[in-house]
What does this fold into?
Amino acid sequence: MKAQNGKFELAPLPYAHDALEPTIDKATMEIHHGKHHQAYVNNLNNAIAGTELENMSLEEIFKNMSQHSMAVRNNGGGHWNHTLFWEIMGPDGGGKPSGKLLSAIENRFGSFEEFQEMFNQAAITRFGSGWAWLIVDDGGNLQVTSTPNQDNPLMDVADQKGMPILGVDVWEHAYYLQYQNRRPDYVGNFWNVINWQEVERRYASLAN
Ligand code: MN3
It folds into this structure.
């Protein structure tokens, strides 16, 4: 993901704001995409303005994240993470993955249900704000992990590194209007809106 003429832009939501109801309500989606994500984009553009980072992709910046400012880390992560988040959800979501991704999940975690349990635990136990992820590590193996704040597993500061193919935002702004403090309910319902075709597409793009 790269800036055009020094500016990152917020892409439109790939579906209507109410398309994920009843799992995620319209007001949350409007504020989350239009206000929170837009703010990450604006603050990222301000942070990179006039620097060499204007010409680098976020993925390149993340590799040396520890050498850059907290503004770039928080807002660059915020832009990348939310862009993935909107795309891996959809109004026709839910169910299970198929094909190679399902096989890989079953081989790695024992079953799809055991993977769900592990992912739910990562999301529920992330203290404060952050994300839970399904990633493909450098060895091509699936891993479940989580990161604080707007960090992600592409960053050199991450405990466990890899390319995210699925992620859930567990910041309170992602669920508080509808679920208040019930993060486990939000995480449990998140499975109903996962666009597995998109997750499978991302997984296939990493296969060597
Ligand atoms: Mn968010």
About this structure: Residues 26-48 form the longest helix (23 residues).
